[in-house]
Amino acid sequence: MHQHTLAGEIIHKGVGLHSGVNTRVRILPGEPGSDRYFVRVDLPNSPIIPAKIATVNQTVLSTQLGTDEIYVRTVEHLLASLSAMGVDSARIEIDGPEVPLLDGSAQIWTDSIAAVGLVSQSVGDESAPIVIKEPISVHQGDTFVCAFPAPETRFSYGIDFDVPAIGNQWYSFSLSSNLENTENSFVTEIAPARTFGLLHQIEYLQKSGLIKGGSLDNALVCGADGWLNPPLRFANEPVRHKILDLVGDISLLGKFPVAHFLAYKASHNLHIQLAKKILEFC
Ligand SMILES: [Zn+2]
């Protein structure tokens, strides 16, 4: 069978949202069948961290892979871009603990992937697709994530914020079956949606020593009277960003299950809990 990797290399530098640390990411074509994995090139012996559900070790405000000593944080936007654009294997070298947030969206990653293009690779036997035969769900309070049997991979999301500028938003997006076409809808509909936050929560998080790299240049910030840094790229940019995060987290299954994912007010923690349950039952 055939898989795909990048036809060239991609390099970007920037600040990490939570750590505030500047890092350089260099994405190289992966060996056939090697899947997507990170390499902490700044650490002794350059340890490898596979982009798999089994390596998730923290989900507070972003998804972190590895161990308490050797980890890479905020992997979701980059992994969503690679997986949604059909990059099955990639070696992602990083010289620090967190993937740069760039402009807060995945657009710079998807533009770069489209620019270098993909190449086909021969690999061994095809592993079986993950098919959801019965609904699988996880929930916490009034928030939930489910996977329903469906003929194609689709992501639907709802959010509900008590600020008029966001309010109640729902969006649904089907991952194109034609992954070799880089003009698929992930690139135009989901990747440009930026990270967002509420002003009062941001002040609290910064006082707690979190989101050290956040700024009005890399995240949309919403106050009681509206957005601090408009214009938005889409009227419903926040819910589209939640789909971006969900796509990135579900990509840690290695390949996208054929299923309809439905989430409401969920978090990285709940996305990962659902993915673990899928691994257990499918
Ligand atoms: Zn995000």
UniProtKB/TrEMBL annotation:
SUPFAM superfamilies: Ribosomal protein S5 domain 2-like
Pathway assigned in UniProt: Glycolipid biosynthesis; lipid IV(A) biosynthesis; lipid IV(A) from (3R)-3-hydroxytetradecanoyl-[acyl-carrier-protein] and UDP-N-acetyl-alpha-D-glucosamine: step 2/6
An annotated GO cellular component: membrane
Transmembrane segments: none
Active site annotation, chain numbering: H268 (proton donor)
Enzyme class per UniProt: hydrolase
Keyword list, A-Z: Hydrolase, Lipid A biosynthesis, Lipid biosynthesis, Lipid metabolism, Metal-binding, Zinc
The enzyme's E.C. designation: 3.5.1.108
Cofactor requirements of the protein: Zn(2+)
Reactions accelerated catalytically: a UDP-3-O-[(3R)-3-hydroxyacyl]-N-acetyl-alpha-D-glucosamine + H2O = a UDP-3-O-[(3R)-3-hydroxyacyl]-alpha-D-glucosamine + acetate
Pfam families the record matches: LpxC (PF03331)
Annotated GO MF terms: metal ion binding; UDP-3-O-acyl-N-acetylglucosamine deacetylase activity
One example of a Gene Ontology biological process annotation: lipid A biosynthetic process
Binding-site residues, Zn(2+): H77, H241, D245
Family: Belongs to the LpxC family.
Function description: Catalyzes the hydrolysis of UDP-3-O-myristoyl-N-acetylglucosamine to form UDP-3-O-myristoylglucosamine and acetate, the committed step in lipid A biosynthesis.
Protein name: UDP-3-O-acyl-N-acetylglucosamine deacetylase
Protein's organism: Sphaerospermopsis reniformis
Gene: lpxC
